[in-house]
Amino acid sequence: MGLRAIISRIYRGEISADIVGKPKIWYSISGLLLALSIAGLLIQGLNIGVEFKGGSVFTFKASGHSIEQVRGAVTGGGAHQAIVQKAGADWRVTTESLTSAQVTEVKQNVTKQLQVPADKVSTQVVGASWGGEIQKKAWQALIVFMILIIGYLSVAFEWRMALAAVVALVHDLVITAGVYAWSGFEVTPATLLGFLTILGYSLYDAVVVFDMIKEVTKPLGPTSKTTYSEAANQALSNTLVRSLNTSLVAILPVGAILFIGTTLFGAGTLKDLSLALFVGMIIGTYSSLCVATPLLVQLKEREPKYKEIRANIARRESSAKRQAKAAKVKAATGPSGDATGDADEGEDDSADATAGVTVRKVVQQGPRQQPKRGTRQQRRGK
Known about the structure:
This protein is an alpha+beta fold. It is built from twelve helices and six strands. Helix 2 crosses helix 10 and helix 7 runs antiparallel to helix 8.
């Protein structure tokens, strides 16, 4: 059976996918993605937006010019650093923080070299202190979000599920940040909103799976015939199709915004938001199914209750194997036993035959029959 047929049968719910039983595969994939992401963060670094680090932004429309021409027009006006981005016919150039006089000089130089009217060049100056405050509040929002998530999951479920969910969330954050590092996309407040959105989405998927696992594993006891791992895998298989359908429906419009909205319509802000959503939804779906759930199962299998269930099942399986082996040995020795029985029956038949001969001999050796004697008158007549 081909891979396509197997995936199709899993999608239709005809067979169960053994996701919980193969944690090494998923951990290896996640480890590789995390290593690439961390390498990107260390080598490339994040392209932090001006809203977080401070600086000056010049936005204008100028067709028929290259990136180098636009950069030269801005740096020629007195700016030392210029990050140039193009979205359709719009140019967005970010520089270090400039004074009002320097901003005016840059605008004049852009108007002169690129033939852009001065009133068509919009400027935005963000102070370094204000950007630092925004960055600080962003970290605070992320920490508060994590604390609330841990508290909610610990109350609604248990601390093991909370730990598994938080590990999956950190996994999603690091990989999404690595994609931003390697792609060079700017990290803006819209990106931060996208990050918080994907954390909520990933958490939603994990909660759905964990709730199903909680319901399926609740009846397990010492006499159960199913381990926690098997029950959790069955619960995951029951929610797999729903998770994939939900993710697919959410990813398609986000992909349209990312690949169509930014290229055809030049929506720069949407690009910052849609990339975080697109990557985060894919990674979030993967982590809730293939990272959080196997990690939860490994933590739960260490509990004495589920250790006892596994040990009882192992003993019953071992006893069944011994009985099957004994039955097999008995079946193998059966023909010789039948032969012995046939021999016994032969001996019985021989004994019966001997007894028959003896009886016949006794009958033959009995008293001889005397000639029949006539009546007294007959004898007198003689």
